[in-house]
Amino acid sequence: MSALKPLADRVLIEPIPAEEKTASGIIIPDAAKEKPLKGTVIAAGNGKKDEPMTVKEGDTVLFGQYSGTEIKIEGKTYLIMKEADIYGVFQA
Amino acid sequence: MSALKPLADRVLIEPIPAEEKTASGIIIPDAAKEKPLKGTVIAAGNGKKDEPMTVKEGDTVLFGQYSGTEIKIEGKTYLIMKEADIYGVFQA
Amino acid sequence: MSALKPLADRVLIEPIPAEEKTASGIIIPDAAKEKPLKGTVIAAGNGKKDEPMTVKEGDTVLFGQYSGTEIKIEGKTYLIMKEADIYGVFQA
Amino acid sequence: MSALKPLADRVLIEPIPAEEKTASGIIIPDAAKEKPLKGTVIAAGNGKKDEPMTVKEGDTVLFGQYSGTEIKIEGKTYLIMKEADIYGVFQA
Amino acid sequence: MSALKPLADRVLIEPIPAEEKTASGIIIPDAAKEKPLKGTVIAAGNGKKDEPMTVKEGDTVLFGQYSGTEIKIEGKTYLIMKEADIYGVFQA
Amino acid sequence: MSALKPLADRVLIEPIPAEEKTASGIIIPDAAKEKPLKGTVIAAGNGKKDEPMTVKEGDTVLFGQYSGTEIKIEGKTYLIMKEADIYGVFQA
Amino acid sequence: MSALKPLADRVLIEPIPAEEKTASGIIIPDAAKEKPLKGTVIAAGNGKKDEPMTVKEGDTVLFGQYSGTEIKIEGKTYLIMKEADIYGVFQA
């Protein structure tokens, strides 16, 4: 369980390094204007009024390169961002 | 099935190269201020509260030249954008 | 029937050249800050939630000079714009 | 009847030249930052959802100097603007 | 009765010169960033949907120095502004 | 009773000089980016539709240094601001 | 009990110095673009219409480095900010 419970529509994400080539074969383009990044959802907020969350703990998600705020918990770097900044969820 | 499920009102699109001349005879104008582009819908989100999606997998759509964010899946380039950035759907 | 079905509150319009003098006698002013233009509605979207469309296929409409995005279908130039960018409809 | 039916909350207005001194004695101030102008409502739209129109054909209205877009119908200059750009209606 | 009926949430105000020292003893500060001004409500609109008006004809009101648009009726200068630009009403 | 009744969500406040050291021991920091100030509520508006007021006459409140508009009533300086510009209320 | 009751969706927070290494092992990154900070909730407002508060007195929260306004009560520095500026709550 995460030490930090995100508020409202925020999500705590552990980023997956871009050089790592995953089973699903995603490669981040070299020269794109903006490089989307992948990460694992560590914890999600409870959503806002009438707006439940879609992502859940364990999901692998894609998000914008400049999305969210970086924090460190026990030496590891995480990102905290709003669910609206997440582009999509990778399917198992 | 797409490896990536777009969130909310987002759509995953495989762009169709502009030089390709399709059956419906669309030609992108040379000197337009903004060149609309065509693409195929690969996957669509579930929409937002009270706003179901209109486009669906397989639709050929027209969208703005600068719309969306480029990502690569298994070597192919895709775009992820909000449905509101799509101008229209080509009819079969 | 149009090859392109506009999404939501968008309208596909075939512009009427400004020099054409119509039966209703509209003349576009020479030195206006912004020159409104006339066009024929080729196809209209289905509107947005609780906002049905007012214009329909065949309507002659007036719109701002810089409204919409230019596209070409089978060699002809069209405009795609939101209904809110249309000033009014000419009456038969 | 006007040849042009304004859409939604738009109003078609025939401006009254500022030098014309009317019965109600309105004089437009010389050195104001913005000179309000008078005009006659030629046609009004049907309003927006849950927002019916207040002005009607024949009303004499006051509006901002830079409001609306100029168009010509049969050689006469008109303005088309949103009702929200109209300051008030002169009473008979 | 005023010759001009303000639309929606607008109010027609006859400004009270700042040098006039009233019974209630209001003095406009000399060096304030913005000088609030007093005026008499001459006519008020009917309000907007679900937002009835608070001020009424005859009220003495306080408003921002740069609020509203100046107009002249029969040689007198008035201001027309939205009720939201009025700070408060002086009590009799 | 105040001579001025604030409109809607506005509040009339008599500021308490920053050098005054109160019983509750509040001291305004010297070098803060923005210095919050204390004041006494003299009069409050009736709120906006579905948004009743929280503060009431006599409350000691904290607000931003640049909030509100300064006015003088009978030689005393007051501030008029929206309730949303008030940070909190001091408890007795 | 806090001397200051925050209004609406505001929260009064006592910041925890960044150098302090807590039991949960959070370390603020050195060279992050923006350094999130930790603090203890001293008092929370009653929320806004249909938006109850999530955080409560005693919660340890994470928030942006530039969030809120600094105030001093009895010599101690506090921050007052909107709940929406809080990223998350640390779990016991």
UniProtKB/TrEMBL annotation, chains A, B, C, D, E, F, G:
It is found in: Cytoplasm. Pfam families: Cpn10. One of its GO terms (molecular function) is ATP binding. Its main location: cytoplasm. Keywords: Chaperone, Cytoplasm. It comes from the Bacteria. One of its GO terms (cellular component) is cytoplasm. NCBIfam families: PRK00364.2-2, PRK00364.2-4. Together with the chaperonin GroEL, plays an essential role in assisting protein folding. The GroEL-GroES system forms a nano-cage that allows encapsulation of the non-native substrate proteins and provides a physical environment optimized to promote and accelerate protein folding. GroES binds to the apical surface of the GroEL ring, thereby capping the opening of the GroEL channel. Heptamer of 7 subunits arranged in a ring. Interacts with the chaperonin GroEL. HAMAP family: CH10. Belongs to the GroES chaperonin family. This is Co-chaperonin GroES. It comes from Brumimicrobium glaciale.
